[in-house]
Write a structure and sequence with these properties.
alpha+beta; Arc Repressor Mutant, subunit A; 3-stranded antiparallel beta sheet; two-stranded antiparallel ribbon; 39% helix
Length: 102
């Protein structure tokens, strides 16, 4: 059974993720899979419906971010992840991220 698409809920989870877990600055760069992995964790923590990678990337682009390249790696330009107290490990990169506390 496929996912039921809800454009408002989809947009709202991405906007909330950007507001709560991200730092929006022109000098920030984040690989797409790293940003998506953090988004999945964010949705899981809030028990919210998550988007597929393609849907997520579309929503990030609709928020005004664009893909670029840094050191030969694809990155979202203008967005980075915030660091807080509790860390989780990115399944994709093995990098450390931080989750907000409840």
């Amino acid at each position: 059974m496929g996912k039921i698409w809800n454009p408002r809920a989809s947009r709202d989870t991405v906007i909330a993720f950007l507001r709560d877990w991200c730092l929006v600055q022109t000098d920030r760069r984040t690989p797409p899979l790293m940003l998506y992995d953090a988004y999945l964790c964010y949705c899981q923590n809030l028990r919210r419906h998550d988007l597929t990678l393609g849907e997520f990337n579309d929503e990030i682009e609709k928020q005004g971010f664009s893909l670029g390249e840094r050191y030969g790696q694809l990155v979202w330009k203008g967005v980075g992840l915030c660091l807080m107290e509790d860390a989780f490990v990115s399944r994709t990169y093995g990098a450390r991220f931080i989750e907000p506390r409840d």
